[in-house]
């Protein structure tokens, strides 16, 4: 799954706001009613989340995540590596329980 295909799949969902949509970064706010469908699509495209997980994040991934604001309990992180790049998808639920910010980032190796 490459970034452009993933971004195309994600953009089919009902977003309250699209904040950024460019060649290697996507950020939007999705409404609660779409969240389960979004997670199912991310699992299809990227596999199971790496956070939360009983396993620790690899050091390089943890450094990247920290540079993007970190990851905390209640948040979700998907991660997929290919021969040429890696893709992170981070889901940060809002305190209101109605919205979730999603960030999808492509990074060259």
Provide a concise account of the structure shown.
Helices cover 29% and strands 36% of the residues. It has 3 helices and 5 strands, in the order αββααβββ.
Structural class: alpha+beta
Helix-strand pattern, N to C?
Answer: HEEHHEEE
Number of helices: 3
Low-confidence stretches: none
The strands making up the biggest β-sheet line up spatially as 1-2-5-4-3
Beta strand %: 35-45%
What is the count of structural domains? Answer: 1
Mean pLDDT, rounded to whole units? 91
Helix percent reads 25-40%
| Rg from Cα | 13 Å
Shape: globular
- Count the beta strands: 5
Distance between the termini: 16 Å
Largest sheet: number of strands, sense, barrel closure: 5 strands, antiparallel
Task: Write a structural description.
The chain is α+β, with helices and mostly antiparallel strands. It has one domain. It is 29% helix and 36% strand. It contains three helices and five strands; from the N terminus they run αββααβββ. It has a five-stranded antiparallel beta sheet with strand order 1-2-5-4-3, with helices on one face. It is globular, with a radius of gyration of 13 Å. The model has no long low-confidence stretch (mean pLDDT 91).
